[in-house]
Write a structure and sequence with these properties.
single chain, oxygen-dependent coproporphyrinogen oxidase, alpha+beta
Amino acid sequence: MKNNRNNSLDPISISNWRWSYFLDQTINKFSIFQPRSYPIMNDFLARESFFGSSSNPKKVILETWALKTKKIRQARCACLQAGEITSVMNLVISPFNNYDLPFFGADFVTLPNGHLIALDLQPALKDDIVHTQYFLGKLKFIHANWQSKLPSGGDIPLEARQYFSPAFLWSRIPLGAEGDKVISQIIKPAFDDYLNFFFDLVANAKNISSDRSLTLLNGQKKYMRYRAEKDPARGMLRGFFGNAWTERYINNILFDLQ
């Protein structure tokens, strides 16, 4: 494909991408933090493929937006659209380890049987009170307000629970007009609440000691290794773009702090 995106800060160009509101809100919030482009090779900035029958092929487009700031090592969003079948936003904001900050994660996925909604501020050190006590109280309040208005997403695998906060917003939403209403009236303001709270934490974050930074870095690396090893999108990406490209994308772009 002809790639019109020259760096990771160039706008996403996917037509009618379902989740554009959420990335736009993120970009707007970052605007006051003097964002710079995050280095991403052209092969990962934009990629397309085709699936389905040879008589009726469907196009799939994947574009990657990313930046960095003084306190954020990497904020990146994988944006995918596969016809009317699948639409994905996988957004992770990773702070530098010299600030005692959680990750911000939003994974919104449209599949043929519904929308999956996952939203959280994920601690790098879940059992470390110093790392969690300053944000979990308010985050639980935000979570309780919105999760009560949503259907549950179901059980979380036991192995995965250590990487989510107690304020993990998790839901399965039907397709069609009912789901569109839930996204507009509940998911959008819930996302805004989580995002605004995260940026309040970033604005107020102070440098921590070198020993504390090393402890936090180890927790961040463990989180990233888990995400890379267990990425549920791996099978879908392999089907669209092949195994070799997918492994490079997951390990070198999406979860690159190894």
